[in-house]
Amino acid sequence: MSLAKRHAVVTGSTSGIGLAIARALAKEGADVMINGFGDAKAIEAGRVGIEKDFGVKAFYNGADMSKGADVEAMIADANAKMGTVDILVNNAGIQHVSPIEEFPLEKWDAIIAINLSSAFHTIRAAVPGMKAQKWGRIINTASAHSLVASPFKSAYVSAKHGLAGLTKTVALELATFGVTANCISPGYVWTPLVENQIPDTMKARRMTREQVINDVMLVAQPTKQFVTVDQVASLAVYLCSDAASQITGANLSIDGGWTAA
Question: What's the pLDDT tens digit per position in 85-118?
């Protein structure tokens, strides 16, 4: 499969799942725009690495995904630099773990904004171009938590359930325009997001680090293994292919059997 002459925007892609998806799309020939926070030198090294490794153009936009105006400006920047946004991957996400009665209001607002509302803003801005050219791929990184809940994650679970609903709605609206919209719903993937929530979970559940990993995270995954970022990226690349043109509105689990129960 070749994605040569395609242009992709991947949010939350300076590390983890997003960076793996950006690199996988670039490997197939797509120019990419990455986005996210982090050390400026590390981000630039990642951008340059994509260009050197795959011979494509790679750009960076530091839009704050909690701000709708920033998000719209990023899509405009991508259109200006690449010509079109053919592939949109909404991957930006944050997490906070806390009992609901103690859940900080600012954390709720930030999680909803970044994990859910940002996808609305990117899609809203990118869809006119996709409809005009009669081709597009929208991929939203949801979570097993778009299908099931876990305690102490009220904002995250709410956002991911909402993202699944948004995906279905967009898929129906764009079904006759050659544009697909799908969710990828990973279980626990070993990323900085997962690693960073371990201390909060230790506190909320009064557990050790090892207990959190084995008795909270992997207890739900029958394979007892973390999903890898490359496995998620491979599924994203497939969804961009012509072979996947009739897959739309789907929520595809890659969770080691978590949601099979």
Answer: 999 999 999 999 999 999 999 999 999 999 999 9
The token duo for 83 is 């010509």
What is the value of pTM for the model shown?
0.94
Q: Where exactly are the structural domains of the chain?
A: 7-187+228-260
Residue 190 burial by Cβ neighbours in a 10 Å radius (0-12, 13-18, 19+): middle
Q: Which residues are catalytic?
A: 156
Name the token pair of 97.
């773990």
Superfamily of domain 7-187+228-260: NAD(P)-binding Rossmann-like Domain (3.40.50.720)
Q: Amino acid identity of 125? A: A
